[in-house]
Structure formats: structure tokens, C-alpha cells
Amino acid sequence: MPPSGLQPPGVSRWEFATIAIALAAYLSLLLALIGRTGVTVDEPSHILSSILYWEGNDRLLPRDLPPLIKIVAGRAAAAAGFPIVEESHPVWQTKHEWMVSLDMMRRMNEDRIRDAMFLARLPLLIFPVGTALLLWWWGRQLYSPLTGLAVAALFLLEPTALGHAVLFKNDHASAFTFLLFWFAAWQYWRQPSLLRAACLGLAAVLGLLAKLSMLILLPILGVWILARGRNDLRRAGTHLALAAGLAYAVAIAACQFEVRWWNGFLPLPEQIAHGVGSLMGNVRSDNAVYLLGQRYGSGHRAYFVVATLVKAPEVLLLLLAAGVRFAPWLAVPPAIYFAAASMSSLQFGFRLILPCLPMALLVCGAALEHWRSRKWLAPAVLAVMALPVLLYYPFYISYFNAASGGPKQALRYLSDSNVDWGQDIRQLRRWMHQHNIIRMGVSYMGGDNPLAYLRPDQMKWIEPPFNEKGRATLVYQPTPGLYAISANLVTGQFFDAAHRDFYKAFRGLTPIDYAGYSIYIFRVP
Description:
The structure is a single chain. By secondary structure, the chain is of the alpha/beta class. The chain has 21 helices and 9 strands. The chain has helices at 13-36, 43-54, 68-79, 97-106, 110-121, 126-142, 145-156, 159-164, 171-190, 194-210, 217-228, 233-254, 270-284, 303-311, 314-326, 328-343, 356-370, 377-391, 425-434, 487-491, 504-507, and strands spanning 259-262, 266-269, 289-291, 294-296, 440-443, 459-461, 481-486, 513-515, 519-524. A 5-stranded mixed sheet has the order 6-5-7-9-8. Strand 3 and strand 4 (294-296) form a beta hairpin. Helix 3 crosses helix 5 (110-121) and helix 9 runs antiparallel to helix 10. The longest helix has 24 residues, at 13-36. Mean pLDDT is 94; it is low at 1-5.
């Protein structure tokens, strides 16, 4: 780590060329993944909300998506040609973006889905690319140019981050803004100034506009500035007022100046206030999670510990454990977020702690820097990191590390977006063609449109027990033949108590194959 006040060396030509080539390769991979990754569960509703945001009509429930990704990608989504019906259509009477967005998807064929999703997803690549650049820039200031490059490369090669980087979701936006906040906090601590206080306030509000869980950054902002300026509280107060005032103004503007009055005198940004209320309601409701073969109705304190152990590449876990010894202060921010996530009942996948990843990689960088004299170490680590990227392309959403048994053993540990987010209905069509399957039983859970890829005569549709038709049967009794069942349906975690064994017949069977690791292929004798 450079001594206090010592500036790192300027960016040399070889360093600039290296980071440029790495990012070009990364972008090429992401562009390929955009076209290969099917529509996931939440994407249609987020896209619809983003389009309505730019039309000034973002009123559909649940209104729990903060506006940052709407601002960044809403115009592109609006231009992509998603067929949204007029508000006079009966589906709008539900007043729920899920229902309207599912109707939107049902009106699209395969080509239209592929082209529209590509255009909508494209602007959001700014967040993973921004994270990689910031990791490199901060890493070279904390350590050295070589270690900065290595830290950025670790991020570029992390499989779960890769899989989620191409989705119309706010997970990467929150990871970038969380890293940006702590970088701004580090800069402010080194040399407090009005400009750096303003940057810190802006970073905090960007985090909140990315994800509502980033609300924790606001009290941290106040404590940070006051702690740094404890010897001059008047100046610290000025800095805090500037940072808080800027954050407040940006939040109001991002929410299109729509406000909710608190106690009749303080205007709060309406979308944020409504989203926080919705979030609190969700926290108090039944949020079923699946962990180690069991269903838990309100989350589990060990959920993200298990998720990290089975989803993170082993070499990262080893580096992280070593790096804490050399840079414990860098481990505090991700530990705070990890602890808050573990206390919440909203535990829908490893992706929810993605904000921890960039800071954790900086901790890994401390170990690489400490052992920099072992010139073989960084290349060896990056080579090991590259292996799953090569082996599991393009199915990174379902990635599980080798120690856990890989993605085929996923349901031994977790389900939900760790395995199956509805992303592989196209892969099922490909599997049927490769194996000359004319017709099979299909039960799919996701936001994509199965009829865009499979004709009605190619599938015997099994209705999941989410609606009245599906709930007419307590336990599905399959006849002999082939079946394709979404992994999240097999576990039964999302069904009411009476229907949790709806797919019980398939739990006792070993899949004969997988469509992208998220749709299980069974043969019923």
C-alpha cells in the first residue's frame, strides 16, 4: 500500500493497453451473453416500469424498483418495441406491473424478444464495466498497478457476476454504487474538502437510487463525515450539510419531483418512500427460502454464508481469508452489508449480496500484494478463475463451485436465482432438437414466453399451482415419458402448504439431463 500522501505511478502504456484489452474482451463476452441468456423472472416488470418512468406514468404496483436503472436504460427499453397494450385493456385493471408485463411478453415471438431484450439490456453494461474500472483505479492506488489489474481481472472472471451482468436488473448497479461510495469515503477521509463531501453525498444517493437496501449508506455518510471532522465540528457540519443537501436534491429530481409529505412539512421523494414502505411490507411477509433441502418461511441467518461457500470460486474464498489479515479495514464495508442481508428475510439468491463482491476483491488484492514477490501467484489465480468461465459458458447464473459438486448438485444447497431464474427456456428447445424429441411434459417458471420457442403440440403443459387451475390438483401424478421441470418448481418452496408436494414425483428421480442447468429433464418410467 502506498504510504500516506504518496501518489501511485502514472498509468503507463502497457497498463493502459492491458486494461483496455481486458475490458474489450469482457464487453465482447457480455454482448454474446446478452443474446444467449433468456428472459429472467423480474426483467419484464422492470422493463415495463422503466418505460413508464420515461412516459411519466410509472404508477403500477408494487413500485419497489428505485429509479437509477430506469434513468439509465428506460429510453432504450422504450425504443426497443415492447408491445404494451393501451390502458383501456382489462389487464391494466390489475394495476400491477407483473400482470401487464406478462401480457406484454405473451405478445412477442422469439425474434422480437431477442432483439428487444438486447436493446433494453445494453445500457446497463455501464455498471459492471464501471465496477471493473473503479476496482482497477482504486486497487492501483491502494497497492500497485499490477495488483490493481489483478483485482479488476478477478471481477471480470467471477462467474455469478458475469451471469447477472447482462440482465435488466439493479444488482450490478448496486454493486457499482456501493463500491463508489466507499471509494469516495476513502478519498474524503484522506483529505476532507467541500468537493469530496459533495462527491460522497452524490455516491450515497446513487446507491439509494440503485437499490433500497443502500439506505444504510445515509447514516454511514453522517457518521463518516462527523468522525473525520471531530476536531473541527463546524467544518464537518458544513460538509455534512452539503453532502446531505445534494443527496436530497438528487433524490427528489430522480423521482421526477413527485413527493410525499412527512408530518406535513418535509417532502420525501415519493418513489423512494413508497419503495421503502413496500420493502418493509415484504420483509414482514412470508418470504420462503430454500436452504440445504429445507424450506424456511422468513429466511435463515446462515443463508448467505452457505450461498457464498457454494457459489463463490474456491480461490476467491482462500484469497479473501488471507487478505483479511493484511487489510482488515477493507473487510468492514462488505461485512456490514453481508450482516444486514443475513438479518433480512429477503434472501432470494447470492446476487443480493453482489454489492459485497467488489470490496471483497480489494481484500483479496491485499493478499496478492503481500505475496507479490511470488510472481507465479497472480497468473495462477487468474488461470484458475478462468476455468469455470470456459467450462460453463453461457450458463453462469446457475454456477456452483467445484467443491459443492457444480451446478448439477445445486438443489442440494439452494434454489431461486442461484439456479433457476427462468433463463433457459430457449435451451430446452435446443435440447429437444438435439435429441429429436417431438413432445414432452413441460412446467416452466419465469418471465419468458414458452410459446415463443415451443409450439403447443410440442409440449404437454403442466400448470404450476399458482392459480386456480393449477391448484385443482394437490399432487401431480405423471404418466411415463419425458418431462422438463424448472428447478424452482421441483422444490415446491413457493407454493402454499397444501401444494408443496405438487412435484413430489420428480424429487425422487435423478434428472437424465439439464437444459442450461435450470430446467431439469426427467424420464418417468
